[in-house]
């Protein structure tokens, strides 16, 4: 029977399956960060257990660390204790750690791929919902809670039920200024933030094939914002080219053997999916969110919906509350709305291609003096590459802040935050109430839209600047 | 934590798509412990800028005291994977949640903490909100062995629960202990797949 890539990866990782119980699924790569892991390590300690496969486990720090000068101690005592705890845990349990001073430190979903840890056909987990990012490599990658982290540390396995499959086909050619971020924001706006619940998504179609690995990561990253735990793209030459020569990628004859295996991962012709959604890439515009969840998005030139248009009373109520929190009115486009902060970063859009895109627009221009602009590279490697290309000078000359790598203003745990009532255009993944700081109001958009809005000081359709 | 059955008043929170950032804001995730989260459950809805409880928020009202059931809008628990969300709900005193749907990661996390997500059809969901609006003291009964929810009008409604999760909740099965018993099978799997399957261990 023809199988999807999802079923192929699943089948090759089932340790065993017994009547009435979930499958025991083997995990190839477990990524760990400081925020969701301390209680799991404590659990191991209380049980007197070791980590079964420290060699398949890699840790870094990203969420609660400052993005300011790393030679200084962390001022926030609670964050400092959490970071120190991860160091202790990794030392005690023998787990490799890319700590705050490491040349490989970065956002966990940025460093996994760039170190070549994430490979096609793998099962990858992390105590973070944006683990879906790694699906870009044709890996089955999903976020887990702390109890499951402890379970994987102790057994290198998870008890899992099979999910449904959702095929998202994106065919056609993107118009200029329309990016991977706009594809995923359009999908979430279309199927809703619960549209993928219970499913794993496979992205395919000519527009997905045409994306670079970094762009595929942007798409897969926000799969969770549609409710699906995992989303993946079958590996192809783009994938192999990206991986070749990376630190943990197979070398020599092992590489050839691996590529030969990976080529069999793609879904078989005629494989069946539980659901299918088709998107016409050529019809997409730059997207922006106006509300308090990532599904509340519109093409940037389109009006924000009005509650009165909503037939469903629940939807009407949700929209009314969202617009009230956001302090905006329906019925007109967001273009021209004043902006206080622009954030370019996060596991969605902090890779070198994102920074290059923003820098191209900002080069020779100034950001609006009323706007605070933060550019936060996803990793030390991204930072080094950006420096080699002279990007920090472009950002600084434009009036933006250039920071140290981390999650920063996406989750606002580390002191980088948007003040109550202020508006940000953010390249991150969540616009939930208070996500970027208590009372903060977030418009999610692509790096291009963010950079354009930084220049003008208002929400801007980048196409009007070119 | 075990779960058998309970009878309780409900705390209605009708908003749809309540995300885990609302349940417990990220700034409380810097803790290295599971404790002390209940006081900050729904923090930004529950307290004003000065940190005083907002009297109009339902968790601050007498009716929430002792209630074990949260009646929530559609798609409860979306967003971040933080298990701090179910920890905070349990520490506040909740043992069950009723909604039409729950986000996948949240649902898994809740079940591992003895917090039972009860999925009901839209008509039952609406009937429960109506019942609790008429009389805030109405009770529901949740019976896990029979997988039934008894609603205030006396109707018994079946709800789905994963059979293994149900077994674990009823018997207090520790999942890690369960999987550790399969250590030989895991070792055999590891031995079987070296160099033969479609993945490679990360090189050191």
Describe this structure in words.
The complex is a heterodimer of chains A (466) and B (204). Chain A is of the alpha/beta class and 466 residues long. Chain A folds into 3 domains: 5-160, Aconitase, domain 3 (2-Layer Sandwich); 164-283, Aconitase, Domain 2; 288-464, Aconitase, domain 3 (2-Layer Sandwich). Chain A is built from 15 helices and 19 strands. Chain A has helices at residues 5-11, 38-47, 77-93, 108-114, 146-155, 180-191, 206-209, 213-221, 237-243, 252-262, 313-326, 352-362, 380-388, 391-398, 447-456, and strands at 14-16, 23-26, 29-32, 57-60, 97-98, 123-126, 140-143, 157-160, 164-171, 199-204, 230-232, 275-280, 287-289, 297-299, 341-344, 372-375, 401-402, 423-426, 441-444. In chain A, strand 9, helix 6 and strand 10 (199-204) form a beta-alpha-beta unit. Chain A is globular and about 55 Å long. The termini of chain A are far apart. Chain B has 204 residues and is α/β, with parallel strands linked by helices. Chain B has one domain (5-193): Aconitase, domain 4 (Alpha-Beta Barrel). Chain B is 31% helix and 16% strand. Chain B has 8 helices and 7 strands; from the N terminus they run E-H-H-E-H-E-H-E-H-E-E-E-H-H-H. Chain B has a 7-stranded mixed beta sheet, sandwiched between helices. Chain B is globular. The N and C termini of chain B lie far apart (39 Å). The chains are: A alpha/beta (466), B alpha/beta (204).
Order of helices and strands of chain B: EHHEHEHEHEEEHHH
Query: Distance N terminus to C terminus of chain A?
Result: 51 Å
Q: Please give the number of β-strands of chain B.
A: 7
- Biggest interface found: A-B, 96 and 60 residues
By CATH, the topology of chain B is Aconitase, domain 4
The stretches of 5 or more residues of chain B where confidence is low (pLDDT under 50) are: 196-204
How many domain units of chain A? 3
Please name the CATH architecture of the largest domain in chain A.
2-Layer Sandwich
| Low confidence ranges of chain A | none
* Percentage of residues assigned to helices of chain B: 25-40%
Computed over alpha carbons, the radius of gyration of chain B is: 20 Å
* Main pleated-sheet profile of chain B: 7 strands, mixed
Fraction of residues in β-strands of chain B: 15-25%
Question: What sort of overall outline of chain A do the alpha carbons produce when their principal axes are compared?
Answer: globular
